[in-house]
Design brief:
The complex is a heterodimer of chains A (about 525) and B (about 425). Chain A is mostly helical. Chain A contains 21 helices and six strands. Classes of the chains: A mainly alpha (about 525), B alpha/beta (about 425). At the A-B interface, helix 5, helix 10, helix 11, helix 14 and helix 15 of A face helix 2, strand 7, helix 7 and helix 8 of B. Chain A: Keywords: Amino-acid transport, Cell membrane, Membrane, Signal, Transmembrane, Transmembrane helix, Transport.
């Protein structure tokens, strides 16, 4: 309670002082918003933030959200409740008849807004706002906020907010002309503890007139941060590799079933992925127009539907075309390639040639910071999803009767047939299963790639590469193949670049396939000999 | 051979019989394959323009007829289809092509059969042909002003030049690198990165950009990333938290059509440089957008820069044909230089002797609704340079099809043909 009262008193005192010193600054700055000039808007934000007027935060926040309006030379803002307020007086303004236009913002103005809000909300009662403000001050390094910053640090109860506040103070002190060497040394230490890219940038761009002992300390600290970052960068590259590998795994795992078991070279596999992505789009469209509340769950709803759509199309293709071409791989290749073109153009005719927008649910947006690396939630979700699909498929093949039949047919088709397994029915079901899995891969890929008729084309080559590299007919091979290719690709990319990295990888695969034509995990059994 | 000749002759006579009734206009845009995403719209624009001209009573007393072919995003097929348009359908002019490689593939055909091509897309320059009219932007009408804007307004000191690995980004980046270095930017402040077509895994590159941009100097990305790869690129930027206020991305191939497939909220503030935005408020543009929406019967349909280029190119051709009184390519090629038509952003574009046109340059920031807010524009129209002044091989070259009759006249050796 005492604490709260202190804040209140301090704020009132501060406001009082500021408004006494800069009386009229707020009123003078306000009309500048009506000039429709970014330079004037920028200047007005600075003046308003320093004016101490209680309406300042409202005005700057409304500007950020496009709620600051001008009309007939006057400035208004609309509260989030919809109420129109005259910015000059703070009075509600109900009877505005003329046309109101929002004040335009560009990047320069956005930066000014961020910095202004930083200094205005440092003492906010909301911890999240204080954190945001501390970050903004760290970026803007505005010396004028130093007194407020000191006060905020003294009051701060939350350690993680206090950390950011302290690094903001350090960032200011490091480049401040009249800072004492002891303050600077402390600042160097604070930034050393922060240990990220931004801290490194501050430490390595020290003003040249800084005292030599500070420069030496900063140099040491920068070296320490570099070592730390190099370690995290390596970890991050491996993570990127796993993430790329899981995308490859998702795209290829359906193919591992169709190509692996029934030996069909299915060039339309990519289009099954595309159908899954378009199913997601349709589901989201329906949800948007009918049940907006379900949007967060749209991907989960799309999963079974995508499986159904893709597997029924797959079974249809198998029953009507591929069935008649068993044992003729070249004809199958041509026929399925034709089907892939038909499906693509069909989708293009129905949905149009342009990309379709598939939204990302809130729980998949943003990033998780671990150490000095940031893992984006959508990638985490895809990695988890890919491994779950893999595990489920493994269980299906291992413990269900369908799995048993499929494995039997894979190992020796004729023997399986003699034992009473209806091989043609198993073929159709296996093809449906593979296609369905491709469909749910499409749901995941809609989050990171274009939902366009060409979606599948981009994955078909990679999928075949993974399956052949890993060993035909072996799910574990597909997993290891996908992960190896993903990680190798991502470890090569920083050194060789995206284009050369890919070329190097392709050459490595060619050499590998020549040495071991059956891939990493060659299947043993009589099927191999035939 | 005999068969082919016979087919050609019969095609020619059939064409001649019809040519008395109509003037044919060829439309050479991919309606299937990877480029359909961008080119289908341009076909629709051409059909609308032809229909509109016919409502006005046609051209020199005849009706216009659009002949649409589908080169299916297949570069050699572009050449085949343009041969079909010119020899078999006897079109008077062709409007088409999108990628530079498709333009390069049809060039020999247009030279050999002496016809006219209007090419509506921004490109890398370093070319001027007698039979081609470039209504899109040359690098000095898009890339250079964009870089100037970032250096002046955003105080950018470090540059990432990111592009798809083919001729347009490579040439543009070469020009930009030479230009930046001439402005005193050091080599270590420029990062160049190329990716394959359709690249979808941007994690490493975006992380690199973040790292490059956190050196303390203001950094910007100049993106010549083309087509489908843009969506995952912007998604990754948003996910890794790269905001326009920290590291702005200025794109040369991202327009209203491309943004229609993305959730644009995280992209607010990123930039694009074009010669036209749908959001430009002029009476000409308003009328055009209304016509376009009612023609396509889709109130959500967007307009973009290459569409405006076709509008300008088509109107120039119409005026040139009226001036020459014939559709004969030689006469039209002579007549069209100096023709002025209003563009949609309030200025008047002129066809220059180097077969490029004058255009305004606009820098726009992406808004939440997927449209652009023009934050800067040139005071006057900028004349397109066929040959860049910033590259060693090309700075002495000029193109002038009126007096010099040459597309690459060397002002040092005083000879045509470099």
């Amino acid at each position: 309670m005492v604490f709260l009262r202190n804040i209140l008193q301090a704020t009132v005192l501060l406001l009082g002082m500021a408004s006494a010193a800069l009386a009229g600054a707020y009123e003078e700055a306000l009309p500048k918003f009506a000039n429709d000039s970014y330079v004037d808007t920028d200047a007005a934000i600075g003046a308003i933030a320093g004016s101490g007027n209680p309406l300042s935060i409202d005005v700057v926040e409304s500007l950020r959200d496009g709620r600051l309006l001008v009309g007939s030379g006057q400035v208004f803002f609309r509260r989030t409740s919809g109420e129109l307020v005259n910015a000059a007086t703070g009075q509600a303004w109900g009877n505005q008849t003329g046309e109101l236009k929002p004040v335009r913002v560009n990047n320069r103005v956005r930066r000014a807004i961020e910095a202004a809000l930083g200094s205005l909300t440092l003492l906010s009662s909301d911890a999240a706002k204080r954190l945001e403000a501390a970050r903004a001050v760290f970026r803007s390094r505005d010396e004028a906020t130093l007194p407020t910053l000191e006060k905020a640090i003294a009051q701060e109860g939350q350690p993680h907010v206090r950390n950011v506040l302290e690094s903001a103070r350090a960032a200011i002190l490091l480049s401040k002309q009249d800072a004492l060497p002891i303050q600077r040394l402390a600042a160097v230490q604070t930034l050393r503890n922060r240990g990220d890219q931004e801290a490194l940038a501050l430490l390595s761009n020290l003003p040249s007139q800084a005292p030599p002992e500070v420069i030496a300390a900063a140099g040491n600290a920068a070296d320490g941060i570099r070592t730390r970052l190099a370690f995290w960068e390596a970890v991050q590259n491996v993570w990127y590799g796993i993430s790329l590998g899981s995308v490859l795994l998702l795209a290829a795992i359906g193919l591992a079933i169709t190509f692996g078991t029934i030996g069909v070279i299915n060039m339309a596999h990519g289009e099954m992925v595309m159908l899954g992505a378009y199913t997601t789009f349709m589901v989201q469209e329906l949800i948007r127009s009918n049940f907006p509340g379900l949007f967060e769950a749209s991907l989960l709803i799309a999963l079974p539907l995508a499986f159904l759509v893709a597997s029924s199309v797959g079974i249809l293709i198998e029953r009507t075309v591929i069935r008649f071409l068993y044992g003729r791989p070249l004809e199958t290749l041509l026929a399925t390639w034709g089907i892939s073109l038909i499906l693509q153009q069909g989708v293009r005719t129905i949905f149009g040639p342009t990309n379709r927008e598939v939204g990302t649910p809130a729980w998949m947006s943003g990033a998780l910071d671990i150490g000095a690396m940031s893992l984006t939630y959508n990638r985490i979700a895809i990695v988890v999803f890919a491994f779950s699909v893999f595990a489920i498929l493994l269980l299906v093949l291992r413990y269900t009767s369908l799995g048993l039949y499929v494995r039997a047919v894979t190992q020796n088709r004729r023997m399986a047939g003699s034992m009473g397994i209806r091989t043609s029915r198993v073929d159709a079901l296996a093809f449906g299963l593979g296609s369905g899995v491709a469909g749910i891969a499409g749901v995941a890929l809609s989050q990171i790639d274009n939902v366009s008729p060409n979606l599948g084309q981009g994955y078909i080559i990679d999928s075949f590469m993974v399956v052949v590299f890993g060993g035909v007919g072996n799910l574990w091979g597909t997993l290891v193949g996908a992960m190896t290719l993903g990680i190798a690709n991502k470890l090569l990319e920083p050194y060789a670049g995206a284009v050369l990295g890919k070329i190097a990888l392709l050459i490595a695969i060619i050499v590998f396939i020549q040495r071991r034509p059956r891939g990493l995990f060659a299947l043993k059994g009589r099927a191999v000999e035939t | 051979m005999a068969l082919a000749t016979a087919a050609l002759v019969s095609g020619a006579t059939a064409g001649a019989a019809k040519a008395e009734e109509t003037i044919k206009v060829g439309v050479l845009h991919s309606l299937s394959g990877t480029m359909a995403i961008s080119e289908t719209t341009l076909k629709d624009v051409m059909l609308m323009l032809v229909e509109e001209q016919n409502k006005k009573g046609g051209l020199i007393g005849k009706k216009l007829e659009a002949v649409v072919v589908d080169p299916a995003s297949n570069w050699p097929l572009f050449a085949e289809k343009s041969r079909e348009l010119i020899s078999q359908h006897k079109v008077s002019a062709v409007f088409g092509a999108w990628t530079s490689v498709s333009r390069k593939s049809v060039l020999p055909v247009f030279k050999e059969l002496n016809s006219i091509l209007f090419y509506p897309v921004q490109y890398e320059g370093e070319e001027s042909e007698r039979n081609v009219f470039y209504t899109g932007a040359a690098p000095n009408q898009q890339a250079i002003p964009a870089v100037d804007y970032l250096a002046k307004e955003e105080k950018v000191e470090r540059w990432v030049l990111a592009g798809t690995d083919y001729v347009y980004p490579r040439t543009t980046n070469k020009i930009l690198e030479a230009y930046l270095k001439s402005k005193g930017v050091k080599a270590e402040d420029i990062m160049v990165s190329y990716t394959p077509f359709g690249h979808s895994d941007w994690q490493t590159i975006v992380a690199d950009i973040k790292k490059f941009g956190s050196s303390g100097k203001k950094t910007a990305v100049v993106s010549t990333i083309n087509g489908d790869a843009n969506v995952p690129f912007y998604k990754e930027l948003a996910n890794q938290g790269v905001k326009a206020t920290d590291i702005p991305v200025v794109a040369f191939s991202v327009g209203e059509e491309e943004l229609a497939g993305i959730d644009t909220k995280p992209l607010v503030g990123h930039l694009a440089a074009w010669n036209y935005f749908q959001s430009v408020e002029t009476p000409e543009n308003k009328a055009f957008i209304e016509k376009w929406k009612s023609y396509t019967k889709n109130p959500k349909r967007v307009s973009n820069d290459p569409m405006e280029a076709h509008v300008i190119g088509f109107n120039m051709w119409v005026k040139a044909v009226e001036k020459a009184g014939t559709t004969d390519p030689d006469k039209v090629i002579d007549a069209i230089v100096g023709i002025k038509v209003p563009n949609l952003t309030g200025g008047v574009s002129e066809m220059l002797p180097n077969h490029h046109i004058t255009k305004p340059v606009l820098i726009g920031e992406i808004k939440e609704d997927g449209q652009f807010d023009t934050v800067w524009q040139t005071d006057d129209l900028v004349a397109g340079d066929a040959w860049s002044k910033h590259l060693d091989g090309s700075k002495d070259l000029v193109a002038d099809w009126q007096t010099l009759k040459c597309g690459n006249y060397n002002t040092v050796t005083k000879k045509c043909g470099s």
